[in-house]
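Good morning C.,

I know you're traveling, so I'll keep this short. The sequence:
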Amino acid sequence: MKNTYNLFTQLDELNYGPQSDDRILRLSKVISLTGISESTIRRLEERDLFPPRRQLTERAVGWLQSEILAWINTRGLTDEKYPPWTRDDK
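The tokens, ready to paste straight into the viewer:
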């Protein structure tokens, strides 16, 4: 049987403990988990529709794992034809 590594495997690896054990995720992991591009993440952040990034050092940023997973869980929970994160109105 071929060993497959997919989103569910990644989520299982991340979901290892209580929120006090929250991890910092770097951009590549956030992109991998959400399936959206860096430019879309930035656009959503500008409109306060994505979890805020945390400044780790002068040049490094990251996101809290719990916030990213919570954001993922809210996707698709709207009856709107064009959900807020797809519109240009601010």
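Safe travels,
E.
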